[in-house]
Design a protein that fits this description.
six-stranded parallel β-sheet; phosphatase activity; hydrolase; single chain; alpha/beta; binds magnesium ion; Rossmann fold; carbohydrate metabolism; about 180 residues; Heptose_bisP_phosphatase; 7 helices
């Protein structure tokens, strides 16, 4: 039976906002998924901890300024707050490519960092994302994983059919509630 995790980790692009092939480089390109923001907010309003874990190689590659990136994040955080929710922490890997550090997914670094910060064990943590690299990072951190079929999710489900998959973040979280 699934239990509410003490710490829920969420990927950003393709989960909370629409995935873009060239990444989100400007605040106007951040197309939030309203149902996902609402589901996250409702979940966090019940007092449960949610943290963001996101690769943003565009930072390391210089495709977005720090100021614009902050504006993009502010747009996201503001929308979550407007819906009544909050994130307990935000973890960003700016690495331009894989292998520069273990923070960039599929490395486990950001997940380990979040669990250390919030003093929870892998068994108390759940990661929800849309990419195969999210699943790999979860596995490397010994954390349970759920795939959402938004963003890259449908392609990820074809590549990794054994992953537990849910149509949307709302459905993934509703299932936690139903079985808690
Ligand atoms: Mg993603």
């Amino acid at each position: 039976m699934t239990r509410f995790p003490r710490l829920l980790l969420l990927d950003r692009d393709g989960v909370l906002n629409e995935d873009r092939p060239a990444s989100v480089r400007h605040r106007d390109d951040l197309a939030l998924i309203p149902e996902a923001i609402a589901a996250l907010a409702a979940y966090s309003r019940s007092g449960r901890a949610v943290a963001l874990v996101t690769n943003q190689g565009i930072l390391g590659r210089g495709h977005v300024s720090k100021a614009e990136f902050c504006a993009i994040q502010t747009k996201l955080i503001t929308a979550i707050a407007a819906a009544g929710g909050r994130l307990v922490s935000v973890h960003i890997a700016p690495d331009a490519r894989d292998g520069l550090s273990d923070r960039r997914k599929p490395g486990p670094g950001m997940l380990l960092e979040a669990m250390r910060q919030h003093r929870v064990s892998p068994a108390e943590t759940l990661f929800i994302g849309d990419a195969v690299t999210d699943a790999e990072a979860a596995q490397a951190a010994a954390v349970a994983f759920r795939l959402v079929l938004t963003g890259k999710g449908r392609a990820s489900a074809i590549a990794r059919p054994e992953l537990p998959a849910f149509a949307t973040l709302a459905e993934a979280l509703a299932d936690l509630g139903a079985s808690a």
